[in-house]
Amino acid sequence: MPILRKWEYNGAICGIWKVTETTDELRSLLTDKSFTPEFFSYKSYSRQLEFLAVRVLIRELTGAEQRVLHYESGKPYLDGCKSKISISHTKGYVAVALHPEKETGIDIEYRSDRVKKVVTRFISHKEMSLIDNRLFFITDEDEKDCAMVNMYLLFWSAKETMFKMLDSSGVDFLERLQVRSIIIPELYTKSDGFSFPEAGVFYGELKTVAFKDPGNDVEMNIELYVSQDFVCTYSVSE
Questions:
Q1: CATH fold of the domain at 3-102
Q2: Which of 13, 20, 53, 140 could disulfide-link to 94, CB 3.0 to 4.6 Å?
């Protein structure tokens, strides 16, 4: 499967790969340069697929194979390369963002109603009001439920992207990371909520703030890309 989507944002190059290949097919696209002991420690077939798909996607984005290593925190970096990298994967998809100098973050989440069960762990009352206000005028229950799930996933994904940008451990998604606003062009809105255009995708932006320490707040602009199957958020530091 070729790249599902490839784009540039604030100097970063980003891509999403839909994984339809087998491990053997993906491995045939790589040399030993891409492999680390990490791959051979994976017993799960799905983790092996993700590992390989990420390396193939990096090669497609940069034109060269890159060896991916990890700091003790788990944050990835490229061996012998100063470029910053962010990696995400979800059911059947992998996403990568690379920037030559600045911190970048990307997150992709497969669309699932399961997010409803954990929403109180990462969305505050104030953020929930923001969501309710956008969905208030949607009268069709199925449409409203779809929009609500998308909103929940976007907030979760945005906070995952923020977390990656901060590169901090032990960040409370509920208290320390907040979404202030969500902007979706009128082209993709319906009844003050949002629906899918004919292309099946829409774009927008989230305004967020991370409360790191007293007097050290970090505001971020998080771009969003939503399809029928997943939500994706990404950002680059100022």
A1: Ribosomal Protein L22; Chain A (3.90.470)
A2: 53
